[in-house]
Amino acid sequence: MNTKKLVRIAFLTALGILLMYIAFPLPFFPPFMTYDFGDLPGLIAAFAMGPWIGVLVQFLKCLLGYFLGVSKAGLVGMAANFIAGGTMILVAGLIYQHRKTKLTAVISLLVGTVVTALVMIPVNYFIFFPLWGVANESLLVMALTVSFPFNLVKFLLTSVLTFVLYKAVKNVLEEKDFRSSEPRLNDDRA
After folding, report:
1. In the chain, where do the E strands start and end?
2. 38, 48, 108, 122: least surrounded by Cβ within 10 Å?
3. 3-state DSSP call for residue 135?
């Protein structure tokens, strides 16, 4: 990995941590389920530098954010944030990397949103809701009526913001392969 890429990763990680400080509850959801803008840099990294770089940004954001005390939900909240955000970033990034067009960006963001919302149903049911002390008889209802719609709303909002912001920052973040734009010399020419 070159220095420019490392600097971009560090910048996006730091931006993600700062954006996590802007957290607020969404209407109609429990107050412990808050929205923050911290997943944006990971998605932008996935689109500009590849899905695994986006997941790395998300992981570093959550790890450092935990140690900096950004999350009110502590380790459980950061783990949930990483799994949800990491799923979204990975799915959207994998789809987008194959064909970088506006239509593919929209499709990748929509598919990523739906997949993340579906993945978080069993993850919250089996792992996070029990860790938060949700009663066993409420687990399924919470997973279906709270987790699923919350993640749909959260990642639809994040998707819209990513789609709007990405075009403005992509030239700064994308790696350019200047060799492919050079004219090739024919071997027959002297």
Report:
1. 23-25, 34-36
2. 122
3. coil
pLDDT digits (tens, 9 = 90+) for 52-103: 999 999 999 999 999 999 988 889 999 999 999 999 999 999 999 999 999 9
Question: What is the chain's alpha carbon radius of gyration, rounded to the nearest angstrom?
Answer: 19
Total H helices, total E strands in the chain: 8, 2
Question: Distances in Å between the alpha carbon of 181 and those of 106, 176, 177?
Answer: 28, 10, 8
- What DSSP letter does each residue of 1-30 carry, written as one string? --HHHHHHHHHHHHHHHHHHTSEEEPTTS-
- CB-based burial, 22-53: b 16+ in 10 Å, e otherwise: eeeeeeebeeebbbbbbbbbbbbbbbbbbbeb
For tokens 């919470």, name the residue. Answer: 142
Q: Which long-range contacts (CB under 8 A, 24 or more apart) does 27-34 make?
A: 29/146, 29/149, 29/150, 29/153, 30/146, 32/73, 32/132, 33/146, 33/150, 34/72
Beta bridge partners of 25: 34
pTM comes to 0.88
Tens digits of per-residue pLDDT, 11-61?
Answer: 999 999 999 999 999 988 888 788 999 999 999 999 999 999 999 999 999
Ranges of each domain in the chain: 3-22+36-172
